[in-house]
Amino acid sequence: TELPLVAPLLFYHGEVRPYPYSNRWLDCFTLPEQAARLYRQAFPLVDVSVLSDEEILTHKGVALMELVQKHIRCRDMLEWVPQLVELLNAGYNTTEQRNVVLSYILLNGHTLDLSQFVHQMIEQSPEHETMLMTIAEQLEQKGREQGIKQGIEQGIEQGREEGIELGREEGREEGREEGRTEGREEGKLETARALLRHGVSLDIIVTSTGLSRDKIETLKH
Prior knowledge:
By secondary structure, the chain is mainly α. It has a domain at about 55-140. The protein has helices at about 30-40, 55, 65-70, 80-90, 95-110, 115-125, 130-175, 175-195, 200-210, 215-220.
């Protein structure tokens, strides 16, 4: 990534005139000569991708951050639970820092079984049970809301398309008005069936389709 040039520019309106200080920005540092050497050379690099987990575990206060950065894209977080637990229990980081890392892992990491990951973490690091369960519940609720929304959208779209098609067929056979009426009714029924298949609650289906609760109940059988 290439960065644009940044030109330092100071607008001065102090009481002393003219501007009485140095125009060399490095002089703003306590140690200007060391600052000049620092910013003229290549920046320091910590490439965690080539560090072994064993070496990372020796880095104490920054080890937790380095380990997470190294493994956050791995296929399954369960593979590095032992190293993660070791650092969480080592006491190198504050509670706030550990909670931030756990939130980051659960929100951005990958696992084939989130429930198993959370329970393994709790079993080996019970101190963090409250935080882990809180985050897991938030993720579960978010997933549930997204599933309901997707189910409603898919059900409505499917019902609309099938209702339109059925309305056309009935319209050709029995007349345009009757076809539209039956098409709309069948569309509502198909929408209700689709929402039921996605596990949407009866209250939401009643609101979305206008069908009675008894009518929707008959669609379950």
